[in-house]
Amino acid sequence: MVGVDITLEQMSAFLANLKIGEHGRAMIIDENGRLVAYPDLNRSFKRVGNQLQPAALDELGDPVLTRAFNRFRIEGEGHRQLEVEGERYISAASSLQSIVGRDWSILTVALEADFVGFVANNNRRALMMSLVIVGLTSLLAALLVVQGLRADRNAQLVLDRQHQLEVQSQAFSELASQAALFDPEDEASLTKLMEIACGAVGVRRVSLWTSKNGGKELVCDDCYDRESEGHTQGVHLARDDLSPVFEVLEKGAELAVRKADDHPTTAELHRSYLHPFGCEALLAVPIIHQGTCVGSIWFEDERRAEDWSPETVTFARAIAAMLALRLTADVRAAEQVTAAPLAAPLAALHQPNGQPNGTSASESRVAPRQAMRNTVLAADRASGFMERLAARGLDQDRIGVQVFAGTTVLVVQLTDG
C-alpha cells in the first residue's frame, strides 16, 4: 500500500481546474453536508471566533447545490436531473468512503445544456439546412408548375387560335357562297354577312356604319345582336359628339379597345352608345374607298379578359375589304344612275322623235337599273379574280400590277410566219 498526503488546498485547486462542461462544479462533502474541498478555497471555510471551520454547503447560498445535496441525502448515490429557475441540471453523487476511509462524498452539478447543447446546435443546423432544402425544393417545384402551366396555357392558346382560324375559314367559305354579297340592293346578303361575322368572332354585336353628310355623321345600315338574334338600323352618331372616334377612323386606323370606358377616345361613345347595349369592348375597322373612309365595321362585345387578338383584327379587316367592294359597287352604280338621266336629253337632241340613240322610252327607263347591275357584275368579276390570285399565294402588291375592274382588254397573239 502506498500513502500520499494531499492537502485540502491541493484538492481545492484540483477541483477548480477540473473541467465539467461550461458551468459544471465538483465538491467533496462529509456526511453532515460540510465542505471538505471546493473549487473556491476561500468559501470552503468560515471563521468562528479565532478558528476556521468547514462551511456547510447550504451556507454557500447556491440553490442548485442545495437542491442537489437535498436530493442526495434523500435518494443516495446516483445520477439525477434537476430543474431550478427554469434551467435543467444534471447532478451525480458518489461515496469516497472506500477510498479515503471517511464518510465523504463527491458531488458534481452541471447544466444539462453543457452536455447536450451540441446536439441542440446540430439539430438547429439540421433544421436550418432542412428548411433551406425544402425552400429550394419548393421553389424548383413552383418553377416547374409555373412552366407547366405556361406550357398548358400556350398550348390552349394555340388550340384556341387554331379553332378561331377554322371558324373564320368556315365563315369565309359561307361568304364565298353568297353570290349577291356585293350587290348593294340585296339586303339579305348583308344581314347574312353580319350574322356570319358575329359568329366567327364570337362577339355580342356587329354593326355596319356608313359616312353621311360629308363625314359629319355615321349611320348604322345594319346591326346584328347575337343574344336577341335581331337586326336593327337607323342609329345616327354625330361627329360633334364623337370627334375622337371620327378622327381615328378617318385616318384609316383601327380602334381596338378592351375597356371603352377607360379609353379617352371611346369614353363618350361608351357612355352614349356601348353601355346602354351592355357592351364594354370595341373593335372598329374603317372601310376605305379611294383613300377616303366611307364607313366602318364595328365588333362590340361585353367585358373581355384579353385584348383583341391579331387573328380577330385580320378577320375584321377582311370583312371591311368585302364591305368596301359592296359600298364601291353602290357608289359606282349611283354615279351611273345619276349620269344616265343627264346624258339622255343631250342624246335626244340628235335623235328623231326625241328618243336617244334610237332607243325606246321603255329601254331608257331601265337603263339606270341595267347600269347598276353591270357595275355589280364587274365588281363580282374583279373580286373573283383577286380571290383566285390569293388562292395561288399572290396578291396585288406581290404581282406588281394594277387591276382595273370593268375594263375590256383585247389580247392579240401573233405568230411568226
TrEMBL record:
Keywords, ordered alphabetically = Membrane, Transmembrane, Transmembrane helix
UniProt KW Magnesium keyword: no
Segments passing through the bilayer? 126-146
Protein name according to UniProt:
GAF domain-containing protein
Q: Where is the stretch described as Disordered?
A: 349-369
Gene source species: Entotheonella factor
Instruction: Provide the taxonomic classification.
Output: Bacteria, Pseudomonadati, Nitrospinota/Tectimicrobiota group, Candidatus Tectimicrobiota, Candidatus Entotheonellia
- Residue ranges annotated as compositionally biased, kind Polar residues, are 352-363
Presence of the UniProt keyword Heme in the record:
no
GAF domain ranges (all copies) = 164-338
SMART domains in the record, alphabetically? GAF (SM00065)
